[in-house]
Every structure is written in C-alpha cells, then in structure tokens.
Design a protein that fits this description.
382 residues; alpha+beta; Rieske Iron-sulfur Protein
Length: 382
C-alpha cells in the first residue's frame, strides 16, 4: 500500500458511505497503485448498427451451443443404444450412438467457448493498466473498494443491457447443464431394485420360475432362426465334450426358446449370463465354500464370467495353476478354491452356478446363482 507523500487520501467510514460506485472503483485503483493507461469502449455510442450486429453474432454462438446441447440430450436419451451385431438390422444406427453423443456434446462445449471469447473481444473495453504489487493482507478499505471495482468492471462489459445475449447464453448454459444432469442421473432413471427379491440385479436368465429345465448351451455362431430350422444338435454340452484342464463359455437354454428365435439371440447378449464351465484335471485338491459343496459335478465347476472388480470378462483359464484371469486389470481367481481372488484389484469371489447332469447326459443348471453377479456392492455375499 502506498504511504509516501503522494499517497491517496484514505476516506473515513462516513465518506465511504457517501461515495458512488464509480468513485469507489477509482479509489480502488489509486489505493492499489494502479495506473490506467488506456480504457476505451468498443462502442462509445450505444445502439449503433455495428453494436447490434456484434450482439446478434455473439448470441448466435450461444444459441448454436444450446441447440447442440439439446441434440446431445436427445441422442443420449432416445438414440438406439442396444447392441446390434454387424450382421443385424439396425447395426449402422447403433454404431453411430457413441460418435453422435460425443460430437454433439463436444460441439456444444466448443460453441459455448467461442461465444464467450467472441463477447470478450467485441464488447469488453480495451484497457491497459499497470499495477505495483504489495505484500500483506488487504484491510477493510481495500476490500470495499475492490468489490466496487469488480462491480464497475462488470458494468463496463455492458452485459446488463444486452438482453439478447443474456437470453441466448442462459439457454445455452441451461441446456448444457441439463446435459450434465442427464449424464449424472441417466443411469438412475430405471430402478434396479424394482421387484424386490426378483429385481434385475438379483436374478439372471439361469433361474427358472416355472420349473423348466435350463441347459448349459455353447455359442455355435448360428442365429436363432438357424437353430430352430436345423435343430439343437451340438448346442447342449455333455461332460464328454470337454477335455481335462479345459474351459468353455456357456449360456442358458430352454426348450421353450425354440418357439422364439429372438430369445435364442438375446441370451447371448445378456451381460450377466456368461459362465465359465471348467473341467479340472483329475485329482486336483479342491476347497469348497460352505453351503456350496454340491454346486459342482465331478471335476466340473461353473463360475460367472463377469469379474467382480469392474465387470470385465474373465476370459482366460490357466490349467497348470488353475487360475482364472481377467485381462482388463489382471485380477486372478483360484478355480480350485471357490474362485476366490488371489491377485489384482478384485476383492470378491466369482459367483458359482450350481450344475448337474440330467438323465440324458446334458449339463443343466440346478438353480440361479445364489448371489448377485458382477462388480461387488454391499449386498454381495462373497
């Protein structure tokens, strides 16, 4: 703070109360040793055609940003996002989902930034100031005058009298904020606990409410229509189909599915149904989890293929060490010890599917998993 012979007069509290905002702002500059070399308004005469053109140009950027944000919200909510295989109808539209929401969101951010920069360049006064820095905290006088200085700076931007720009930036910011809200809350629109004990997070397609037999099915690459036309030979898995120390990914299959080709196709896309059917080598010592002693059939064990860390597929099985590996983050689970995690970030065992063999010699599921499949949450039992 200046204290020499040319230091500015420090007004009393009463004098401060009588000063106008402009006088306070001027005093703030003097107290902070600020010398304003130049302060020129871009439009010294209000209401000119050039000023109105500049205002419309800035408002256009904000309106385009709002339209892009609205397009993002609409695409996020209504664009077909259900997975489609490349050979299925609707794949081209599905494949555009991520590019569309990414492009519209990015464009809205870009246009909002362009609008702000355009406003600063077109309307903020052209000012050059020099300030001497000083140490120490500011006193009450400095705080009051600086606030007035900030208020004057806001007034100098002339935003208060530019209704078109204020409305357009309000629209852009509002729709942009709605986009952020959609991202944050989009996953909570559907209640995953609806249905109580039958909620979508508790049950999978391996369960059977009507007592119908659920077979362990392999994916042969045939479509549902082809399976119905050519029969189910080779789809259901038998114990003799697998070599010792091998693994196969299986899915649920019911005979009633043969009446609906879409069911045969849909089950292969369900995120919670893939199961690793593992045949251990003979004589491997196995530690059973309490309450699951009869979940296996001989040397055959079935575990969920969905990693309990972040839901990646545990796609690899090493027969020599009996370890199941998730390639995403290198979590490892021990197949001979109820698939408990032994390495990596996963902290919970893979859910085990109860299996047996029916009278025809095919693998069937005895029931659904007895705990939720997927990344760990508070209600997990393992």
């Amino acid at each position: 703070m200046s204290s020499g012979p040319h230091a500015p007069h420090r007004p009393t509290e009463a004098e401060l109360d009588d000063m106008t905002p402009d006088q306070l702002a001027t005093l703030a500059a003097e107290l902070d040793d600020v010398v304003i070399l130049r302060n020129l308004s871009k439009f010294p005469i209000p209401g000119t055609r050039a000023e109105k053109r500049a205002e419309r140009a800035v408002a256009t950027w904000f309106l385009l940003s709002g339209l892009s944000a609205a397009a993002f919200v609409a695409a996020y909510l209504f664009w077909p996002s259900q997975y489609r295989a490349p050979s299925e109808p609707g794949y081209q539209i599905y494949a555009l989902y991520t590019p569309v929401i990414g492009a519209t969101f990015g464009l809205s951010v870009l246009l909002l930034g362009v609008g702000l920069i355009s406003y600063v360049k077109r309307f903020l006064p052209d000012e050059v100031s020099v300030q001497q820095r000083h140490d120490g905290p500011s006193d009450e006088l400095s705080r009051r005058t600086v606030m007035a200085q900030l208020a004057k700076a806001g007034k100098d931007t002339t935003i208060a009298r530019r209704g078109l720009i204020k409305r357009s930036i309000g629209i852009a910011a509002g729709v942009f904020g709605l986009g952020f809200g959609v991202i944050a809350l989009g996953g909570l629109i559907r209640d995953p606990w609806k249905g109580g004990a039958k909620a979508v997070l508790w049950v999978t397609a391996w369960g059977s409410d009507d007592g119908e037999k659920v077979y362990l099915r392999r994916d042969t690459g045939a479509s549902g229509e082809e399976i119905i036309k050519n029969g189910i030979r080779g789809i259901r898995v038998r114990p003799e189909d697998m070599n010792t120390g091998s693994m196969e990914t299986v899915f649920p299959f019911r005979m009633s599915d043969l009446q609906h080709s879409e069911r045969l196709d849909a089950v292969l896309k369900m995120s919670d149904v893939p199961v690793m059917l593992i045949r251990l080598r003979p004589g491997e010592p196995v530690i059973q989890r309490a309450g699951r002693e009869n979940f296996h059939y001989g040397d055959f064990y079935a575990y969920s293929k969905v990693c309990t860390h972040l839901g990646c597929p545990t796609s690899l099985y090493e027969a020599q060490t009996n370890r199941i590996l998730c390639p995403c983050h290198q979590s490892q689970f021990l197949a001979t010890e109820y698939a408990k995690p032994v390495f990596g970030p996963a902290t919970r065992a893979l859910p085990q599917l109860p299996i047996t063999v029916d009278s025809e010699g095919y693998f069937v599921a005895r029931s659904d998993f007895n705990e939720a499949v997927g990344p760990g949450f508070w209600e997990r039992k393992s």
